[in-house]
Amino acid sequence: MKSKNPYVRLLNFMRVSNNQDSGFSGCEEVMAYMHEANASGNTVKITDLVQSLQFGTGPTVHRKVTELQSRGLIKIERSPTDGRAKSLVLSDAGAKHLEARNKALKVILQG
Fold first, then answer.
1. Per DSSP, what are the bridge partners of residue 77?
2. Rounded to two decimals, what is the model's pTM?
3. SS3 category, 6
4. Residue 90 β-bridge partners
5. 79 and 85 in contact (C-beta within 8 Å)?
6. Where are the beta strands (DSSP E) in the chain?
7. Contacts of 27 by beta carbon, 8 Å cutoff, 6+ apart
8. CA 90 to chain CA mean position, Å
9. DSSP letters of 67-84?
10. Is residue 77 classed as helix, strand or coil in its secondary structure?
11. Please, what's the largest Cα pairwise distance for the chain?
């Protein structure tokens, strides 16, 4: 039975989404963080993700970034001025993925 409560529908959406691909857990949050930062004109580095205290420890963040890169959802770009510095950027596929998830969430919440 479909709940009429939008909060319950949101929780169900999140539960089902997280169970679909356990290796992808937490990666969408990283992508959303990157999207918001990039939309504001800011670059995102792995250290930014670690320092935000939102995504776990350094090794956890590195695993998520590696997973996203292997799926083609983000790109790692080297700084033209400092070859050691790397910025994380959503790929076109990553932006499309987030948009599809956003549309699915809107459908769930509108009921």
1. 87
2. 0.74
3. helix
4. 74
5. yes
6. 74-78, 86-90
7. 64, 67, 68, 73
8. 9
9. HHHHTTSEEEEE-SS-TT
10. strand
11. 57
Contact 13, 108 (CB under 8 A): yes
- The three-class DSSP label of residue 28 is helix
Do the beta carbons of residue 54 and residue 33 sit within 8 Å? yes
- The string of pLDDT tens digits covering residues 15-29 is 666 545 555 667 888
Whole-number Å distance between alpha carbons of 13 and 38 = 26
Residues 51-98: pLDDT tens digits?
886 777 888 888 889 999 999 999 999 877 887 888 999 999 999 988
Phi/psi class of residue 93: alpha, beta or left (left: φ > 0; alpha: ψ in -120 to 50)?
alpha
Question: How many angstroms separate the Cα of 34 from the Cα of each of 21, 40, 41, 45, 105?
Answer: 21, 10, 11, 9, 19
Burial, 30: exposed, middle or buried (Cβ in 10 Å; 0-12, 13-18, 19+)?
buried
Residue ranges of domains in the chain, CATH in brackets: 27-106 (1.10.10.10)
Query: Does residue 1 surpass a pLDDT of 50?
Result: no
